[in-house]
């Protein structure tokens, strides 16, 4: 085995744990960035280009009839072929986390529909299922099995949020193991059936699964309920006769207690198991060789590479299969790099250089969970992993299309967990819902001062009634910092002066003068 460091020339902050990589015609594409897509690449899918040990990312495109594919982290994915030896294939993508930390229960089919020397166009279709549809989850696996001329997908494991009826204020955003049900999915008829097997007692996530013909081997995995890593090796056999499918499970000896491990294929029957964790604070630096022959599996310890001091002493590590017997490993850059959230990357080659040159194509039949979310465990818990499905070769694509992240706005300024004001106390690790409309993220409102910025409604001391009124009414809102400034900048309204009508002078009443004879006559009549 050989270990070689890879430099990230640009956009290294996009290469965060939890994404996946898809292989189409020898080209590897990045999928599942941490935030929402930006203007330079609205699809959120990038060509991963490695030349002379330097890594670059270039935007990819979708056809007009494609559905929207959100950036999903920690999904389950695998390739689907018409039969086991077909050349054309498409990817199945299920579950995962959206940038809002919502969990997806949707299934997408992604395929390559057009290819030129400088542009590759994809098509994405959302599939509807009936029957026992799997709940939204992440950290699970999906595989395709072939039996008696038929093909079906098998989904197992993962984690989901605590059901609403069981949530409390203290554990509102906590996650639990999904039930250990095996889902058999028939995409031809759009139906799904779940099976409860007595051999599978505990839910597992971030495990490894390897599919071969009609058999799936499940290795390792972490159980939140027991906080253990299963030492069992499970063998799922799926028989697809003309009638109802038959699913059986057998517990085999010789398993490995590990989570977030990585599997890469080095030959038709041999695989190498790399990385992962023995426990919350102990990385697994041992490698194993897995041999599949005649419906049997054998796991033996193999020679490990000479790990660098940085890898040995890092607080966590992550990685994924690149195909062709190669694995991409990443460790946090911590304070060693000027770019925040940047990582160091290494390529571990489990085969000799001569063998690598002889192989020109890769058949990927391994499926493994994309990563462990660090928010669900201690920093040493199961690493967040990339999900590679083929070797990243050198691509003859014009560098003019390279994605430039410097042209974008800083996503941290528009996220839910920003520091919106000096008195902001919203923290992703301690936050609990305050309004009845909140679920797993705080309510925010746009301040219309200047170019506009988002603030937390709770930090602005808004009542729920006022928040609902502002969200429904088409009015501008100003945060506590800018409300006085806004009042001072407002132009006084023009006061319309009313014209006063001049008052008419009072006319003097005319008095009639009486003569002396008239006075006497009046007095005489008055006293008679």
UniProtKB/TrEMBL annotation:
Domain spans labelled Recombination activating protein 2 PHD: 415-492
Source domain of life: Eukaryota
Annotated GO biological process: chromatin organization; V(D)J recombination
Subcellular location per the Swiss-Prot or TrEMBL entry: Nucleus
InterPro entries in the record: Gal_Oxase/kelch_b-propeller, Kelch-typ_b-propeller, RAG2, RAG2_PHD, Znf_FYVE_PHD
Binding residue positions for Zn(2+): 420, 424, 447, 453, 456, 459, 479, 482
Keywords: Chromatin regulator, DNA recombination, Metal-binding, Nucleus, Zinc, Zinc-finger
Major place of residence: nucleus
GO CC list: DNA recombinase complex; nucleus
GO MF assignments: sequence-specific DNA binding; zinc ion binding
Gene3D superfamilies: Kelch-type beta propeller, Rag2 PHD finger
One matching Pfam family: RAG2
PANTHER family registered for this protein in UniProt: V D J RECOMBINATION-ACTIVATING PROTEIN 2, V(D)J RECOMBINATION-ACTIVATING PROTEIN 2
Annotated family: Belongs to the RAG2 family.
Protein name according to UniProt: V(D)J recombination-activating protein 2
Originating organism: Edolisoma coerulescens
Phylogenetic lineage: Eukaryota, Metazoa, Chordata, Craniata, Vertebrata
């Amino acid at each position: 085995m050989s270990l070689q460091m890879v430099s990230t020339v640009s956009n290294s902050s996009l290469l965060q744990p939890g994404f996946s990589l898809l292989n189409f015609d020898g080209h590897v594409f990045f999928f599942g960035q941490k935030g929402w897509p930006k203007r330079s690449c609205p699809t959120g899918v990038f060509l991963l280009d490695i030349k002379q040990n330097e890594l670059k990312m270039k935007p990819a495109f979708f056809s007009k009839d494609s559905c929207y594919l959100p950036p999903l982290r920690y999904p389950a994915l695998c390739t689907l072929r018409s039969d086991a030896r077909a050349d054309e294939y498409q990817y199945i993508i299920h579950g995962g986390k959206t940038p809002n930390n919502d969990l997806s229960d949707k299934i997408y089919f992604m395929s390559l529909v057009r290819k030129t020397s400088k542009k590759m166009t994809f098509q994405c279709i959302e599939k509807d299922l009936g029957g026992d549809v799997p709940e939204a989850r992440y950290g699970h696996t999906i595989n395709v099995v072939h039996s008696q001329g038929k093909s079906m997908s098998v989904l197992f494991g993962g984690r989901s949020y605590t059901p609403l009826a069981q949530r409390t204020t203290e554990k509102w955003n906590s996650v639990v193991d999904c039930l250990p049900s095996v889902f058999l999915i028939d995409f031809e008829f759009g139906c799904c059936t779940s099976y409860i097997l007595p051999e599978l007692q505990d839910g597992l996530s971030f495990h490894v699964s390897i599919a071969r013909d009609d058999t799936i081997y499940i290795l390792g995995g972490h159980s939140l309920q027991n906080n253990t890593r299963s030492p069992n090796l499970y063998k799922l056999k799926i028989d697809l006769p003309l009638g109802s499918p038959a699913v059986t499970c057998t517990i085999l000896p010789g398993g490995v207690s590990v989570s977030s491990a990585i599997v890469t294929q080095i030959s038709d029957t041999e695989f190498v198991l790399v990385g992962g964790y023995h426990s919350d604070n102990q990385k697994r630096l041992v490698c194993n060789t897995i041999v599949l022959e005649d419906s049997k599996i054998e796991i033996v310890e193999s020679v490990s590479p000479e790990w660098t001091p940085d890898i040995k002493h890092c607080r966590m590590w992550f990685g994924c299969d690149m195909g062709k017997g190669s694995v991409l490993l990443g460790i946090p850059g911590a304070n060693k790099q000027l770019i925040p959230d940047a990582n160091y990357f290494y390529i571990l080659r489990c085969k000799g250089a001569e063998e690598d040159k002889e192989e020109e194509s890769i058949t990927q039949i391994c499926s493994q969970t994309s990563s462990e979310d660090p928010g669900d465990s201690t920093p040493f818990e199961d690493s967040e992993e990339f999900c590679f499905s083929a070797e990243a070769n050198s691509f003859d694509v014009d560098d003019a299309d390279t994605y430039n992240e410097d042209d974008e706005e800083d996503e941290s300024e528009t996220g839910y967990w920003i520091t919106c004001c000096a008195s902001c106390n919203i923290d992703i690790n301690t936050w609990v819902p305050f309004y009845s409309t909140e679920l797993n993220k705080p309510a925010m409102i746009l301040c219309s001062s200047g170019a506009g910025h988002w603030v937390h409604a709770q930090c602005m001391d808004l009542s729920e009634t006022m928040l609902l009124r502002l969200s429904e009414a088409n009015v501008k809102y100003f945060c506590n910092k800018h409300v006085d400034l806004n009042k001072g900048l407002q132009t006084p309204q023009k006061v319309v002066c009313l014209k006063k009508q001049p008052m008419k002078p009072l006319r003097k009443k005319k008095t009639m003068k009486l003569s002396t004879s008239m006075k006497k006559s009046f007095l005489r009549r008055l006293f008679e």
